[in-house]
Write the structure tokens for this entry.
Amino acid sequence: MNYVEETRRLIARYDIHARKRFGQNFLIDNHVLDKIIAAADVCRDDFILEIGPGVGTMTRALCEHAGRVLAVEIDYDLVDILERELVPIYDNLEIREGDILKMDIGEIAENNNAGKPIKVVANLPYYITTPIIMELLENHAPIQSITVMVQREVAERMMAEPGSRDCGAVSLAVSYYATASLEANVPANCFIPRPHVDSAVIRLNIRENPPVLTDDENLMFKLIRAGFGERRKTLANAITNSPELNFSKEEVNQTISLAGIDPGIRGEKLGLDDYARLADFFSKK
């Protein structure tokens, strides 16, 4: 099937215009679709959660290859079109209106896949990419893999090594919860309307066990957010100023030193093992 031609027909028939407030850019390249399906390793045994189906270009491809597909769309106008145009064609498709950030992914897996790990596939709006990725990772839902198309800069940041210029809190979160691989680069001309930046397809394979151990995972990520939240400040000052933490400056300096780390270092220079060790020392406070 020529998925792109079907998309163009749908756009013309309903006079669909991308909504800027939802960050919509519709994919119009069959080769990219093939790369996404291959990257996600979609097969008939899979239940797929698609986030942001838009006009259904990727939804059609997923339905052709997967056992079942649940497509969550926030734009109610597109939900109506997808239900009229795609649901009658694909008996393995369910369209659900809503905000994925307000949904229980664990419940979705339980109700649709008997609690077994699901695969997530998405063409994510640039403005909300990181919150969605973090929500999927942090809620410990049964997810096998996450294959998403994101802004290329975001993909590079997800895969950045500790201490590098591109490394941020999301880099450490991704490396803690998953192993990441860049599957394809996607130029801007593969979308309508054409975005101002290129995209990339990245796959996150969820780890069975994290690469570091800590007594308090929640505290570790508070420390990570503090360390990367104020890059120009020393680690000690960043932790002291963090609205998520409540330690005195004296406690902070003392605890960082006890963990064998220089309080004057910047948080961006530390890796996961450093933050895990810090969390264990701070948890004793």
Q: What stands out?
A: The mean pLDDT is 92.
